[in-house]
Design goal:
The protein is α+β, with helices and mostly antiparallel strands. It has 23 helices and 19 strands. β17 and β18 form a beta hairpin. The protein is extended and about 105 Å long.
Length: 639
């Protein structure tokens, strides 16, 4: 596929076509207004030739990117995307494609180019195009076709990304951090601050609040959209399960015996041997002659009349793993041992001693203790295994056939499941109140089922395409009795509203107490007295760091954003925290970090700071390109 992509966009034919297109733009590239314009934006960087029309970003490209993003948001939100969010997505997308085009123009102007082999390598390294870590042309072709992306467009996009990456890398490579900047960053990062703090938790105040009917009614009137019933359907479906098929498979001894005759070579146990050895280490590049001499001496001792091989192994073997067992290696097949050792052991006779045998580990003195011949397992020994395999194979075959039938019948009988169920011999099952926001029934909140159930075609009365819940479990769905969100009555949500009002009032009360306490502190009241009046837990004074887990996260951020206090005069702040909590802090001192920095920590800090600076410089560089550019966007690009 790589070659075909390359062939279709290069060569003399492409040169002629591009040349003709260029002439066309020179003489007829006149825009007459967005009513008929066929592009999303026209981009001219500050180096763009004055005589040449700006680069046009096509409507098709922008809308393809937009639809992909919109689909992702719909899946995340499990419903329609609000108009204001759609507008934000469109604006961000248009800005992104314009900036990408400007970077590409600038990179081309500066002479950055991408080799064809680099594009090939980039495509081959795309994880989505790989099977078991290796590039697959078939997978790549299928994925591009599924997404409606031509091979030429994908290859051009790869070229663009690599060219842009070259420019960004060059900008980043020019970044550097001076010793003074590094020391300043360390001083700020490792800074310690002496602080006292207290947290006012509104949950402790909820019990003191009792909303009246007027407050509940007012909250309900202002938040009716928050108290809607969920959109739901009655979900009907037919299911195919591999696990339901296997138990129905009829198995006879005749069938299994025939299968056994076909595969019985699988059930031959290999010959096993039990050996012992004494190892003399002889590492590559070591003193080979000395090791061989020692091995010869051990061999002579082992073969001497009355010699105890096991005792010699315990005393002389360099194999710590087997020495304490007298060199015993246990029963093992031929493949268990390295080549030279295996060849020797499996050519010996019982009680024979042989050596020295050289392997990658050194020299071996080997004794064969016993032989266990290979064994052909009979039918009775393997019947259970064969039956399980046979059931599984037949069930998978039948499941595959039924799955194809399911897809065909569901399409042929697009407006009913009854015929599908009859042909497959299964029942039509029902889930009432299947919600868009949370699913229901045996499917729980399975995203694939929710997406299929609330697909426009399914909502309009058609069967869904087969949905794979998991391998071996497939369903086809249809929806009925669609119920759109409805306002719930005040009485049905009174308890819920009462809790919401209590929480809201408690948060307001916590904020009020925090603000009142802050006023007292700033007026000169003592910290211990103010905190005692609040009747909340307090901590400090103590020096804390930016990563001190004892201090709540939001509070810790405020502590290190607060200005340095004047000598002898604490700095006080009230800080809003998650869940309506409010924190009070009294900052009394600031000092440099007291922990020494190891060289490897300093190196890591340098790399992190350089990375942040490089990112900032790349962003600023792109901003400057955008400021100098002439960009004309189509306000109707997304209509």
């Amino acid at each position: 596929m790589l070659q075909s992509i390359h062939d279709k966009v290069t060569g003399w034919v492409a040169g002629i076509v591009i040349g003709l297109i260029g002439v066309t733009f020179i003489f007829w590239g006149v825009d007459v207004g967005f009513g008929t314009v066929g592009y999303a934006a026209k981009v001219e960087g500050h180096e763009w030739p004055l005589w040449k029309p700006g680069k046009k970003i096509t409507l098709q490209e922008v809308n393809r990117l937009y639809q992909n993003q919109l689909t992702q948001y719909q899946q995340m939100m499990r419903g329609d995307v609000p108009p204001e969010l759609r507008t934000e997505i469109q604006n961000n997308l248009m800005d992104a494609v314009v900036r990408r085009e400007l970077i590409e123009q600038h990179a081309t102007h500066l002479g950055y180019r991408v080799r064809e082999e680099d594009i090939n390598r980039s495509i081959e390294q795309e994880p989505a195009f790989q099977i078991d870590g290796k590039f697959s042309e078939e997978v790549a072709t299928r994925m591009l076709d599924q997404q409606g992306i031509s091979r030429r467009a994908f290859r051009d996009d790869q070229r663009r990304q690599l060219q842009i990456a070259q420019l960004q890398a060059a900008i980043a490579a020019s970044s550097f951090v001076t010793p003074a900047e590094l020391e300043r960053a360390r001083a700020l990062q490792d800074q310690e601050r002496e602080v006292s703090w207290a947290v006012i938790d509104p949950s402790a105040l909820v019990g003191t609040i009792q909303p009246d009917d007027a407050s509940i009614a007012d909250y309900y009137a202002k938040n009716k959209k928050s108290f809607m019933t969920p959109e739901s359907v009655t979900l009907k479906y037919v299911a195919l399960k591999l696990g339901d098929i296997a138990p129905t498979i009829q198995v006879s001894d005749d069938v299994l015996r025939a299968e056994y005759e076909q595969v019985k070579e699988r059930f031959v146990s290999a010959e096993r041997r039990r050996g012992r050895h004494i190892l003399v280490n002889a590492p590559q590049g070591g003193d080979e002659s000395a090791a061989r001499k020692k091995a010869d001496e051990i061999l002579a001792k082992a073969k001497a009349p009355g010699a105890d091989f096991s005792k010699l192994a315990k005393e002389l073997s360099d194999d710590a793993g087997s020495a304490q067992q007298g060199g015993d290696l246990g029963w093992a097949e031929r493949s268990f041992f390295v080549g030279p050792f295996s060849d020797a052991l499996f050519s010996m006779q019982p009680n024979e001693i042989r050596g020295p045998v050289r392997s990658e580990f050194g020299y071996h003195i080997i004794r064969l203790d016993g032989i266990e011949p290979g064994h052909q397992k009979n039918f009775e020994e393997v019947r259970a295994e064969l039956e399980n395999e046979y059931r599984t194979q037949q069930a998978e075959r039948i499941f595959g056939e039924r799955q194809e039938t399911l897809a065909e019948k569901a399409f042929e009988n697009i407006d009913t499941l009854d015929g599908v169920a009859k042909d497959l011999g299964v029942a039509v099952q029902t889930v009432t109140d299947f919600h868009r926001a949370g699913g229901g029934g045996p499917f729980a909140n399975d995203e694939k089922v929710i997406e299929a159930a609330f697909n426009d075609n399914v909502l309009n009365g058609q069967n869904s395409e087969p949905v794979e819940i998991e391998p071996g479990y497939v369903v086809v769905l249809r929806a009925a009795d669609r119920k759109m969100p409805q306002e719930r009555s005040l009485d049905s949500v009174r308890a819920q509203i009462e809790q919401a009002v209590k929480k809201q009032r408690a948060a307001e009360l916590a904020r009020g107490r925090a603000e009142e306490a802050l006023k007292k502190l700033q007026a000169g009241a003592a910290w211990p007295t103010v905190v005692a009046d609040l009747e909340v837990p307090a901590a400090g004074p103590k020096f804390v760091t930016r990563t001190d887990a004892e201090v709540p996260t939001g509070l810790r951020q405020a502590i290190f954003l607060a200005p340095k206090p004047a000598a002898g005069k604490p700095a006080y702040e009230a800080v809003p925290l998650p869940d309506g909590q409010y924190g009070l802090i009294a900052l009394t001192n600031v000092r440099a970090g007291t922990v020494a920095e190891a060289p490897e920590q300093r190196g890591q800090r340098l790399r992190q700071l350089a990375g942040r600076m490089a990112q900032t410089e790349v962003t600023s560089y792109i901003e400057e390109l955008r400021r100098k550019a002439d960009v004309d966007t189509n306000p109707k690009a997304f209509e």
